[in-house]
Amino acid sequence: MPSSDYDPASLPDLLPLYYRRLFPFSQYYRWLNYGGVQKNYFQNREFSFTLKDDIYVRYQSFSTQNELEKEMQKMNPYKIDIGAVYSHRPNQHNTVKSGTFQALEKELVFDIDMTDYDDVRSCCSAADICSKCWTLMTIAIRILDRALRDDFGFRHLLWVYSGRRGVHCWVCDEAARKLSVAARSAVAEYLSLVKGGEETVRKVVLTDPIHPFIRESLTVVEHYFSQYALQEQNILSNKESIDKVLALVPEDILLKDLLQHFQTEKNPEKRWGRLKALAKNKQAAVKKGQYFEKEIMLQYCYPRLDVNVSKGVNHLLKSPFSVHPKTGRISVPIDLRELETFDPFDVPTISLICEELDRPRKGEEEEEEDETKEKENEKDVAERRKIRDYKRTSLAKYVKYLDQFLDGMARSWKGELLRKSDLQKDF
Amino acid sequence: MQFSGRRRKILSNPQTELYGHCLQFYVQPPLENITLTEFETFAVERLKLLKTVENLGVSYVKTSEQYSKKLESEFSNLNFPYRAAADDKKVQNGPTEYEKRRKDHISHFILRLAYCQTEDLRRWFIQQEVDLFRYRFNDLLPKHKLEFLHRNNLQYDTISVEEKKALAEKLINSSYAVSGITVEDQDFYKVPFQDALDLVRTRKVYLKAGYVYIPHQDIVTIVLNDFRTRLSKALALTARSLPAVQSDERLQPLLNHLSHAYVGQDYSIQKSVGKISLEQIDSLSVKSYPLCMRQLHQALRENHHLRHGGRMQYGLFLKGIGLTLDQALQFWRSEFIRGKVDADKFDKAYAYSIRHMFGKEGKRTDYTPYSCMKVILSNPPSQGDHHGCPFRHSDPELLKQKLQSYKISPSGINQILELVKGMHYQLACQKYFELTHNIEDSAFSLNHPNQYFIESQKLLGGGREIKREMDAPQRAQENSATRGSTVARETSANPSQDLAEMTEDLDSFFQDA
Fold first, then answer.
1. Given an 8 Å threshold on Cβ–Cβ distance, is A196 in contact with B399?
2. Are residues B74 and B191 in the same domain?
3. Is residue B47 one of the residues assigned to a domain?
4. Any idea where the DNA primase large subunit C-terminal domain is (chain B) (predicted)?
């Protein structure tokens, strides 16, 4: 399948087609409207567009789905970012008294970018990724998804592939959207274990007792560590990478022992086994605070968050279903039930799905089914055609997943709406 | 007028209603008449107290013994109530407990007026008041703590014995001070995690399904959260009624001055703009840069790139030492285009933020260079970053190597590392200054990278053209011994003249604080 032959030069030609026939406006609106539980939630939301030649347009806002559609089809943005829900309509922010225009709510978001792992991956660097280092994203999602659900009690987590080298998480629970800046930064810091910049070698420091959250995270890392770090990244195979690991081992005596052992033992699994055994001995000897093998595992595998993205209520984040201009890949939601098999290189590019549109239609049955359903809903012709359109492309399964995600959220909106109408009856 | 009912009640029994406990939530504003002198004295002394709280918070761990000791002595110097003393017991020659509590109460509300005006001021005030409150609450005897909770109607849900048993292991592993035995004896409170952010942030508490389980000994966190929320709301309310206060010409200049005082010098107004040429920068970075900026400069020259945090910290510093906008654009562009960024990309992606720094884009704020406090406390460096404070954010081993490569003597390095170990990052930097400038004792107290630069230039004699008004801080230091008495002088016949003098005092105080 010609999925990788995307040419950035073709983007201006493909975008109009994408926004006219493929972008899932209806689901998109359904998401950001949040069931209409709060007034003007969609209307006061900031969108920002990046146009051709990096022209950046902030503070866009739209009163209806239709208006959003029209504007996007007119502007054909290269990239779409979603911002906060403000106190006033963002496109009128210049008309209100300064100081009163304030960011009130936004999903709690997380941004994990592969470039932040450059010191611990040997396969690629900077913006490049491969199937080997993608495991880091899988680990990150497993760890954060568990913590956000079990520890923080959130339920509606939308994980999205960024289109190039990372993943985003949108926590959509009402409680998450209402968090203050201080609370967001506390959550982000709770979830951050790897700390320090270029001037820090030992970036993970564990102290006694090990917090249950760290234990849970370690369980996840342990599951992937041997295959990923020892086999694929070869962290104990060549001199250079071994030195990097050994820089994290605290004591000279242990170092000597390890180096000696490594002279004869070439198997990375056994080398790691030796290191673990030494750590265990050490713990037994001093009883306290020696966890260097765990620290090494975490430093190599634990998710590295861009805390500043999570902190700010008004911070912009690339929207799902936006196109990545460099790779042409669509920023699609990730179904965690298929996380282990998710392959970023399988994610459809805009050229692929536009091409799929032109292919002759397959089986008629499916369509009939669609048609009857749509008649019931009495949607207009264009809308009907659009639904048929994306269903014919590889975008379909991602839109379907978003639908399921929204159904899950709708159940909690319904509860909320019921509660509200109940309150009104009391009056 | 609608307050008249409440007023009568308080006046009828002020001591027990208002000052019955040495610590309070500052719910009721003071309603008595006070003299202008008292107004000033109270405000200035509380500001000094808060300033001390801020400074100590940088130098020490907030729960350490040294922190408490230093704060305690500041409390008694300034006559604030710091521990539950028996009511109205006369201390020799000192004010009574009642007077202290009254001062605590009134001074807090005066500063609310001064610090409610902008987001920045509010944040600073809340932070210091919260730290102050934490110290005072922790310092109470257990029975006084309980009394305080009762008095203020603070009730929190405790978990059942069964739940405690089921979670015992997790509870033990979540908190440093809880062991198997204490779990059984101790009450655990279950509150939404938003109410105990400090414990969540530092992972000092067990968190499950959005709730934290707080051992009784950490209850201060929830109380503080309450305190912070209330204060924040109160300040927003105060801001709304501020126009009425500002129309009072006796108070308005004083309040403005009080609020401007908190940051000290911000090194933004430059007499030296345009006096530095780009060719000088490399040699200046070796001679007169503090370590943080030297590190950033070096990283920039090596990688031809700096990430956002580094660009902000270094860019504003450069602005502070006198680079013009054009120079800054030229400086960054010439370095960036030697790396992966071409001129076109630079103009699109980076030039904006540099103009922004100089107040030429966006909301047109003229940003000020970061102080040491800001560098140390906010936005710590992560992967790929070179910003931050090298004394705070480097591994000691790397710091040592770096200092060695800069030809610092081994004994000097040891002194610096010792200070770093004690978390005296600014003192460590000052020591570095002394060692690199071959002086015994630098006559200033370092709190800003740009101050470092100016002091260095002054010493090296190259400061002729970069010279600024440097005498003020020193004069202030000499004055410090007599300052207390000048502030507390008697009311003069002419209150406005009095005010002018008093604001001068404040100026000099905050230049060396």
1. no
2. no
3. yes
4. 283-453
Same domain, residue pair B111 and B133? yes
Sign of the Cα torsion A362, A366, A368, A370 reads: negative
pLDDT for B146 equals: 86
Would you state the structure tokens that stand for residue B24, as one six-digit string?
A: 């309070």
DSSP H helical ranges for B337-464: 343-345, 351-357, 372-377, 390-393, 396-405, 410-421, 425-436, 449-460
* Inside any domain, residue B270: no
Chain A: residue whose CA lies nearest to B379: A308
Domain with residue B99: its CATH number is: 1.20.930.80
What is the ipTM, given to two decimal places? 0.89
What is the distance in angstroms between the Cα of B393 and the nearest Cα belonging to chain A? 7
pLDDT at position A361 is 65
Is the CB of residue A58 less than 8 Å away from at least one CB of chain B? Answer: no
CATH 3.90.920.10 fits A8-189+305-362+376-424, yes or no: yes
Q: Are residues B143 and B239 in the same domain?
A: yes
In a domain, B336, yes or no: no
Cβ of B383 within 8 Å of Cβ of A118? The answer is yes
Q: Check whether the bond before A209 is cis (ω within 30° of 0).
A: yes
* Res. B79: pLDDT tops 60: yes
Co-location of B100 and B242 in the same domain: yes
B62/B68 Cα distance (integer angstroms): 8
Q: Is B22 annotated as a binding residue?
A: no
- Whether residues B214 and B231 share a domain: the answer is no
* Residue whose tokens read 């995270």: A217
pLDDT value of position B462: 55
* Parallel/antiparallel/unpaired status of strands B206-208 and B211-215: antiparallel
Please give the pLDDT value at position A210.
92
Write out pLDDT tens, residues A5-54.
899 999 999 999 999 999 999 999 999 999 988 999 999 999 999 999 88
CB within 8 Å of B223: residues ≥ 6 apart: B137, B149, B154
Is the CB of B386 less than 8 angstroms away from the CB of A54? no
Outline where B280-409 has alpha helix (H).
281-287, 291-303, 308-321, 325-336, 343-345, 351-357, 372-377, 390-393, 396-405
Q: Would you kindly state where each structural domain of chain A is located, as residue ranges? A: 8-189+305-362+376-424, 197-301
Looking at the fold, whether B134 and B167 belong to one and the same domain comes out as no
The reply to whether B124 touches chain A by the CB within 8 Å rule is no
At B97 the pLDDT is 83
User: How far are the Cα atoms of B61, B382, B430, B446 from residue B424, in angstroms, in the given order?
Assistant: 10, 22, 10, 11
Q: Which of A198, A214, A298, A311 to probe the B interface (max B CBs under 10 A)?
A: A198
Min distance A378 CA to chain B CA atoms (Å): 42
Q: Where are the beta strands (DSSP E) in A61-138?
A: 79-86, 103-105, 108-113
- Residues A333-337 have a mean pLDDT of 97
B202, part of any domain:
yes
Average pLDDT, integer, range B391-420: 92
Residue B292, annotated ligand binder? yes
CB pairs under 8 A between A and B: 111
pTM for this one?
Answer: 0.79
**In chain A, residues 148-167 whose CB comes closer than 8 Å to chain B:** 150-154
State in Å, rounded, how far the first CA of chain A is from the last one. 62
Same domain for B387 and B496, yes or no, is yes
The domain containing residue B184 runs over which residues?
A: 161-218
* Integer Rg of chain A from CA: 25
Is A30's Cβ below 8 Å from some Cβ in B?
A: no
Q: Are B423 and B55 in contact (CB under 8 A)?
A: no
Q: What is the mean pLDDT of residues B456-461?
A: 88
Whether residue A89 contacts residue A324, with contact meaning beta carbons closer than 8 Å, is answered with: no
Q: How many domains does chain B have?
A: 3
* 8 Å CB contact of A196 and B200: no
